[in-house]
Amino acid sequence: MRRYARTVVAFALATSVVTGTAGWVSGDAQQALTGPPPGTTSWRADRMLGAELPDPERAAPAEVAAFFDGLSERERQLLPVRHPSVVGNLDGAPLELRYRANSLSLATAEDPRYRSLAAPGRQILAFDPRGRGQVAEVFGDLRSAHRVSVVVPGSDNDAGTFDRANDVYGTPAGMAKSLHAEAGPGTAVIAWTGYTTPVGVGVDAATGRLAEAGAGRLERFTRGLTADGLPEPAVFCHSYGSVVCGLAAHRLSATDLVVLGSPGMRADDVDGLRTRATVWAAKDPTDWIDDVPSVRFAGLGHGTDPTDPAFGARRIPAGDARGHTGYFAPGTESLRAFAAIARGAATEEGAAR
């Protein structure tokens, strides 16, 4: 009887995630963008080099990196011109070629939402205009960086809202830029909006469907970084992005997993993540996510709060952050701790040294 009662309570709490309790409201159902980048058909048919090019869908990032290593400089520079949409999103390809390819793609993009991404000096590591659009941008010198971080955002983020002017520290670009400014020289930070995020906080945000699709894309992206000779990153996961990171954790190439404002990681504890990365967690007392039930039942909810001591993550101080998007605000304890992790200089308690 007690077990039945607990089940009923869990179901009621999980249902409240969808129906509006704790500030959650209905959102529009999204179709996850999967598969290879646009332009793949012409890439697959290209025999310019006298042989097949690595398949964007099936070739591992390490295989892609080996392919580019075997090309002459002329051949390497020709491919972004012939196939900018593929090279710009090809994990394992040299980052310099990806920057060039995405610059070419953005120069011809007609959608006004992407105009700001084409500004001179921006380092766009990935750009896919399909659907709501996906993008990744680098802050710092990625090729020379000793420490690399990746920021994975949550709901309502896409290429069109990537660096919106309002709520700047809740945007992927704003979070990454702030982290890089605090972490300082020798670091680089990537804002990665490389998956289809939920819109609003309805059923999509309360289930793992979009996160499962995003987890595979995040795993491939991080493997592409290391295949290109870059350091394993620390991965910072905000809100629904922490669900993506939780599902990817067991196969993610990362030194640290840092979750903030998390509704849960679809694991009962750190051991359940099956990761060798150090896991950190932050939640400020004014974050509305604290009102979301920490349950997982019938596919709804994301499980244990990562800041719960029983979860086993290292706690990051966040007492002076404000709301759900204040963790990267300059001057906060949380940002200082994040920067220490980004530099590889954090204590076990999560404070900077």
- DSSP strand tally: 8
Strand order, sheet with most strands = 1-2-4-3-5-6-7-8
Strand-and-helix sequence, N→C? HHHHHHEEEHEHHEHEHEEH
Distance between the termini: 51 Å
Radius of gyration equals: 20 Å
Query: What would the principal axes of the Cα set say about the shape?
Result: globular
Count of DSSP helices?
Answer: 12
Helix content class: 25-40%
Strand content: 5-15%
Account of the 3D structure:
- The chain is an alpha/beta fold and 353 residues long.
- Helix content is 33%, strand content 12%.
- The protein has helices at residues 2-19, 40-45, 61-69, 73-82, 84-87, 95-107, 172-183, 203-206, 209-227, 241-248, 270-273, 333-343, and strands at 123-128, 134-139, 147-152, 187-193, 234-238, 256-260, 278-282, 314-315.
- The protein has an eight-stranded mixed sheet, sandwiched between helices.
- Strand 3, helix 7 (172-183) and strand 4 form a beta-alpha-beta unit.
In short:
The chain has about 350 residues and is α/β, with parallel strands linked by helices. It has helices spanning about 1-20, 40-45, 60-70, 75-80, 85, 95-105, 170-185, 205, 210-225, 240-250, 270-275, 335-345; strands at about 125-130, 135-140, 145-150, 185-195, 235-240, 255-260, 280, 315.
Tags for this entry?
353 residues; eight-stranded mixed β-sheet; globular
